């Protein structure tokens, strides 16, 4: 008896060839490629489909799939059921009644050489189609090193769709130096990672507290390793009627994890002191002055931790935040340097001074960065209020005025071309009298008052006169409703 199966709405005979992993039957003679969505004819054999895969998707190795096809026969009724036990392929063992007893997992070669390339081809085509809809994009590069000490770099494009929603596309992962290419060949402007610079600034400042932080790490590690010590710490908090909180251990590659470790350590100071006194362990002793220094360190680093969190966002724009954040951090440093508790602690005072100097040395005058200054000016949350140097804000204003004037000028040229086309078309029509003749003639001879530059300046001034939105709102969503289309 023929077995049937539904594929994409078409019910036909069950497809036993492994090539059908990459195709969906449309009707009795046509199939659709799951990767590139092309429609192909197959009639009674799959030769045409195989040729298509070999020509259009050569990264998918069909031979490995054919060799493993006998092992990839899954009980379809059991697929939707959750499989108990470990989730890794290397450790997964079939359970009774969970999978078909004849089922064996695909081999490593099949996964690496056939299944993953198929997914790669499909995603690659989706990315390629999406790229045709992008008008402008921002390209970012992320670097990391594998456990085999191989350096890799991921290139991602970020863009706004028609609804002003942020989208991202991974374009490439390779060992190629994209930064050199962007600067020298494409000649695109390159901006360093703001969050990474903040990370370096904080690490420089924390170097002065290395001995004290090492003491904290030793105590934290003991509580993490000893279940007895940890349980006593939690019990001590519960006895005092407080919510039980565990100690946080830092991650060497992330400075803010060190901040979170110190912050939680200071928060649990009384409970840690009590628990350590009850433990029979050789742990470092922190003096009262050292505890106070840790409290000051949390107070100093909290604004920088907030800045790092804001600069690491993925679903909102961050370039316009740089000027506001840097100016805010410098103001915080100025306030701290006049704080009595900081002035009385030599380590804290030196830390704040070093942070202030590092902000200038590593980032420079961020208001002079044309791209960041323009993005800040056009952010509905900041506009020209974010600038400390009013002359810089005026320069950005005039640069934007010229840009708007150029856009308006292009619009006038298009309108002139359209009017000329309409005038030429009327020459071929019969002359008839109309009550609108004299009015239309006056409209065609009418010229708007003022120059293109004055109209552009008017739009910029209207933008600045509008109220600034809350910094908690998404400026991209507000741009859709904004009344000045030239700036949107």
Structural Rg: 33 Å
Average pLDDT taken over every residue: 78
What fraction, in percent, of the residue positions are helical? 40-55%
Order of helices and strands: EEEEEHHHHEEEHHHHHHHHHHHHHHH
Secondary structure tally: strands:
8
Multimerization state:
single chain
Subcellular location: Nucleus
Keywords: Metal-binding, Nucleus, Transcription, Transcription regulation, Zinc, Zinc-finger
Domain BED-type: 14-64
Pfam families: zf-BED (PF02892)
What can you tell me about this protein's structure?
This protein is mainly alpha-helical and 488 residues long. It is 52% helix and 9% strand. The protein has 19 helices and 8 strands. Strand 4 (30-33) and strand 5 form a beta hairpin. Helix 2 (62-68) crosses helix 4 (108-131). The relative contact order is 0.05. Residues 1-9 and 67-97 have low confidence and may be disordered.
Which descriptors apply to this entry?
52% helix; 488 residues; 3-stranded antiparallel beta sheet; flat; mainly alpha
Q: How is this structure best summarized?
A:
Keywords: Metal-binding, Nucleus, Transcription, Transcription regulation, Zinc, Zinc-finger. The protein is mainly alpha-helical and 488 residues long. Helices cover 52% and strands 9% of the residues.
């Amino acid at each position: 008896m023929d077995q049937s199966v539904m594929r994409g709405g078409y019910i036909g005979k069950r497809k036993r060839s492994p090539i059908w992993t990459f195709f969906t039957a449309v009707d009795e003679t046509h199939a659709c490629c799951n990767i590139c969505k092309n429609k192909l004819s197959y009639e009674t054999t799959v030769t045409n489909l195989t040729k298509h895969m070999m020509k259009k998707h050569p990264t998918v190795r069909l031979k490995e799939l054919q060799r493993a096809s006998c092992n990839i026969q899954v009980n379809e009724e059991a697929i939707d059921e959750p499989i108990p036990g470990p989730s890794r392929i290397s450790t997964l063992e079939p359970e009774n009644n969970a999978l078909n007893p004849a089922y064996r997992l695909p081999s490593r070669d099949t996964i690496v050489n056939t299944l993953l390339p198929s997914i790669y081809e499909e995603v690659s085509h989706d990315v390629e189609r999406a790229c045709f809809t992008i008008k402008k994009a921002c390209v970012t590069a992320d670097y990391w090193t594998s456990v085999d000490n191989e350096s890799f770099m991921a290139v991602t494009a970020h863009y706004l769709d028609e609804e002003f929603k942020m989208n991202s596309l991974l374009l490439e992962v390779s060992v190629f130096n994209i930064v050199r290419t962007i600067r020298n060949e494409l000649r695109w402007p390159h901006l360093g990672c703001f969050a990474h610079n903040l990370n370096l600034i904080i690490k420089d400042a924390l170097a002065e507290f290395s001995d004290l932080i090492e003491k904290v790490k030793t105590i934290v590690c003991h509580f993490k390793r000893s279940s007895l010590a940890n349980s006593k710490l939690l019990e001590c908090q519960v006895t005092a009627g407080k919510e039980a909180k565990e100690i946080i251990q830092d991650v060497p590659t992330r400075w803010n994890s060190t901040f979170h470790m110190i912050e939680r350590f200071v928060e649990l100071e009384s409970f840690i002191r009590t628990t350590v006194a009850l433990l029979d362990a050789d742990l470092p002793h922190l003096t009262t002055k050292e505890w106070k220094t840790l409290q000051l360190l949390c107070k100093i680093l909290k604004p920088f931790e907030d800045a790092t969190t804001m600069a690491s966002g993925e679903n909102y724009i961050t370039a316009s935040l740089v000027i506001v954040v840097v100016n805010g951090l410098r103001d915080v440093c100025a306030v701290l340097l006049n704080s009595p508790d900081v002035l009385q602690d030599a380590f804290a005072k030196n830390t704040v001074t070093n942070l202030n100097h590092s902000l200038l040395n590593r980032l420079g005058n961020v208001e002079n960065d044309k791209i960041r200054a323009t993005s800040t000016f056009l952010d509905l949350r900041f506009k020209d209020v974010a600038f400390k140097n009013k002359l810089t804000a005026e320069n950005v204003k005039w640069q934007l005025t010229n840009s708007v004037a150029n856009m308006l000028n292009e619009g006038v040229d298009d309108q002139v071309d359209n009017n000329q086309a309409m005038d030429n078309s009327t020459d071929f029509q019969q002359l008839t009298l109309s009550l609108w003749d004299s009015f239309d003639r006056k409209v065609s001879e009418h010229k708007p008052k003022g120059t293109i530059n004055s109209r552009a300046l008017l739009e910029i001034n209207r933008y600045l006169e509008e109220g600034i939105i809350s910094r908690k709102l998404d400026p991209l969503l507000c741009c859709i409703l904004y009344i000045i289309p030239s700036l949107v």
